[in-house]
Design brief:
alpha/beta, 8 helices, 7 strands, 7-stranded parallel sheet, globular, Rossmann fold, single chain
Amino acid sequence: MATFTGKVALVTGGTGGIGKATAVAFAREGAKVVLSGRREKEGLAVVEEITKAGGVAHFVAADVAKEADVKRLVGETVAKFGRLDVAFNNAGVEWAGPLTEATEADYRRVFDINVWGVLTAMKYEVPAMLKGGGGAIVNTSSIAGHIGFPGASVYAAAKFAVEGLTKTAALEFARQGVRVNAVAPAAIVTEMVDRFFGGEDSEGGKAMAEKHPVGRMGRPEEVAAAVLYLASDAAKFTTGVSLPVDGGWLAQ
């Protein structure tokens, strides 16, 4: 039997990159998947890919910076499939530049999506999970939530906040059967990393690859595997952790 047969999984930021890879992986392991994002065309394409492979998926257009959208997203998930067992709060945006050039608009954009988006998602996901007897939440953090990251102050600050939210939520709901963990990727080959450093084959991309002890950047599927582990019963005694998926970066 597939690991998530009979389970319902929600993935925010599911239209590409890590989110897409994770939505596909959940479906492959038997979950009914609801994926969300702001790009409807890309989201529907992911649903089509999952469906063609024999899985079950549904797309909901939503902006996690807007609480009403998140409330509607969780409500539609439960209305569509009857329950919520797993949530991967992955939606996020990047910011790069000198701290002295950060603007209030930069701060609010990044924190509204990367921090408020995670908090408000858990606000509605947890009650839905409790009605079904519990569940598992995984938030997307970053190695930039574990260490200083020159040139990405606003982004790093947001990811440090995600770390705090994850640990706090894990403690609040540990005795109620809801586990809350995070994954902390290093550079993963995605559109976001392309915007940060340039493509994988660019000079910036090659330099970034060399910063990882394994000598390369990661792949979305490698982060997805970590998310599925944390969301599975194999990790049922694990809560409040942030699992680096970083090619050894934080060991340096």
